Structure formats: C-alpha cells, structure tokens
Automatic annotation (TrEMBL):
UniProt keyword annotation of Transmembrane helix present: yes
NCBIfam families to which the protein is assigned, alphabetical: arch_flag_Nterm
Keywords (A to Z) from UniProt: Cell projection, Cilium, Flagellum, Membrane, Transmembrane, Transmembrane helix
Domain annotation Archaeal Type IV pilin N-terminal: ranges: 10-84
Protein name in the entry: Flagellin-like protein
Annotated transmembrane regions: 12-38
Pfam families in alphabetical order: Pilin_N
Domain of life, per lineage: Archaea
Keyword Acetylation in record: no
Length: 177
C-alpha cells in the first residue's frame, strides 16, 4: 500500500508544473500584447484613399489639366499639395476669377494657394470632396506631364508653395497626362 501512495504523489508534480508553465505563458503573452497592441501616438494617421480622373480643358491657346476627385475620403485642403514633372500653377477653372496661370508656376503648389487675404484660388473650400475639380496649368504644354498629389499629416504652412513639415508626406494620386 505504501508503494501505491508514492506513485500518486509523483503524478501530481507534473500536473502542477504544467499548470504553472501555462499560467506563466498566459501572463507573458498578456504583458507583451499590452506593449505591442497599445495605441502609439507617435504613429502618423493613415493617408486618405482617393481616386481621381483628369482631362485637358481649353484655356485660350493652351490646355489646362482638370483633376476631379472621383471617390474616396474627403481630404482637408490645407494638408494637400501637388507637384509636376515641370513647374505648374494651381487655381480655378479657365475663365474664372482665379484661373490657374503658368506665369505663377512653381515646383510645388499647395491646395490653399491664395494671393493676399483672398480665399484659396482652387475654390473648393476646406475639404476636397468627391466631384470637385482643381485646375493645373503647367509651363508650356500639358501633354506628357506627370502629376503627383501628396497628403501631409500636418497642414502645409505659409504661402505658396508653402512649407511641408515633418517626414510624413504620402503620395495619394499620380498620373501622366
């Protein structure tokens, strides 16, 4: 009988060891996931997802590029800028009070470009929403120009072309005319 009692005690030790090991693994997994899955305020917000269309529109003897937001998120205009494979100007439609004019072209144009205390030339308000169009007038001909639209996590500071702060600019649309 004493021999059977010893076997019962030896069988308990592995069960206790496994239970302690499982408990340790659960505590370790919980601790690691708390550090890994916590919301990190240093991570930039994700870039908006958009789709655009473009077409050339008559602008006297030249053509201007009309870029329309077709779908996706509405985007704050103070966080948007555009570049081209050659200098361009952003503005309103040809014939409007604030048309895009290649005379004022630069390497980067922000969407809230304005002269003095006037409202932004593009005329789309504080957000670029689906169905709204901006106009780009590159130096010389528009054919063959590559257009890139960027979203920045921080508003573009200052007048045109503005200052892009931080390293968090994201290319959200690009096309070749």
């Amino acid at each position: 009988m004493s021999r059977d009692l010893g076997r019962e005690r030896r069988g308990v030790a592995p069960v206790i060891a496994v239970t302690i090991l499982v408990a340790f693994a659960v505590v370790l997994a919980t601790t690691v996931s708390a550090f890994v899955l916590v919301d990190n305020p240093d991570l930039p917000p994700p870039a908006p997802q958009i789709s655009v269309s473009h077409q050339l529109v008559s602008d006297g003897d030249e053509r201007t590029i009309a870029v329309t937001l077709e779908g996706g998120n509405a985007v704050d205009t103070d966080q948007l800028y555009v570049t081209g494979s050659k200098p361009l100007d952003i503005g309103g439609a040809p014939g409007s009070g604030t048309p895009a004019d290649e005379t004022y072209a630069s390497d980067r144009e922000n969407f809230v470009e304005a002269a003095g205390d006037n409202p932004p030339q593009v005329g789309i308000g504080e957000q670029w929403e689906s169905g709204e169009t901006i106009y780009l007038d590159p130096e010389g001909t528009a054919e063959g120009v590559t257009i890139s639209i960027y979203w920045n996590t921080e508003p573009i500071e200052g007048g045109n072309p503005g200052t892009v702060t931080g390293d968090d600019a994201n290319l959200i649309a690009e096309f070749r005319v």
